[in-house]
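Tokens help. Consider this.
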Amino acid sequence: MTIKDIAKKADVSVATVSRVVNGYKWVSDDVRNRVMAVVEAENYRPNYNASVMATGKSNMIVIVIPESVSPFFAQFTSVATKELKAAGYVTMLYQTYNDEAEEIAFFGSPFAQMADGIISVTDGMDKELLMKIIQPLREKQKPVLFIDRYLPPDIADCVVNDNIGGMKSAVDLLYKNGHHQIGIILGRTGMTIVNDKITGFHQAMESLDLPVDNRYIRMGDWTVETGYLETQHLLSMPEPPTAIIACNNFICEGALKWFDHAGLQVGKDISLIGVEESSTDTMLFSWLGITTLKLDSERAAIDASRYMVGKLKHDPPQDTPPETEYPMELIVRKSVVNLNKNES
């Protein structure tokens, strides 16, 4: 059955059938009931692709993420999906693993062209290349919102976490507790967050007149294995750091596994600060007593979703500007040793 067949059987125009099946209000109850009786009797389903081609709207928003197992990405997508569904949009997830080729494939695909809007939490592509890749989307006036990625405001909107300020607060806490030799472990992928975290670390150390020893800056993947191996490397050095900043939850888990293997007690034999706690794993970090930098993934997801819906309806919320920066909250627990107290 086509929409024309439905219109003929219900003795109405094609436009009237379209208004009924799309839920428009300005149709009388008598006409609506007559059309829906035919629709249900014939088990009619609208042609989605034809509707998209005809209207230019899919009511679909794609959320692009590196992967779905991280607590931050899992909570972000869960909250965003709920917000967007309430606003009448279907959400699709696309994983890129922060791989440049995967991002190029997505942004150049018909899938991206079909979406009404895109929220991207990935950061695996060079800025100049990214701006070139999303140019066709801009020409079609499809809004693209980036999380933790800086782009010029005339290219795309951004919602970012203050990784530079967060690293400064972490280093400051360690310094106040007598730590001068500080190690940091992070992944290589995710250009903006990696650069911001390293920049924040350097700036914090330099502001405290502490030397930056590049041997203490270890990079690998954002995995438990990297946390384990790089922690082992740092603490096997002739002059090991007295504290380690683990730059995501998996790296933090790996560091804890190596401490346990080596018989070291966090908060007594070694100091550790985790990064990227979200509200879904707060109970775990609290139980373990790990000091962390916390991301407000729920607020970021709500703001990003509402801002995207506002852009699509040409009425973005005024309290969420195109470039919003969220502070990272330092949650102090029991994993930092006070060396000043030990010396006295």
About this structure: The first strand starts at residue 60 and ends at 65. Residues 292 and 331 are 5 Å apart (CA to CA).
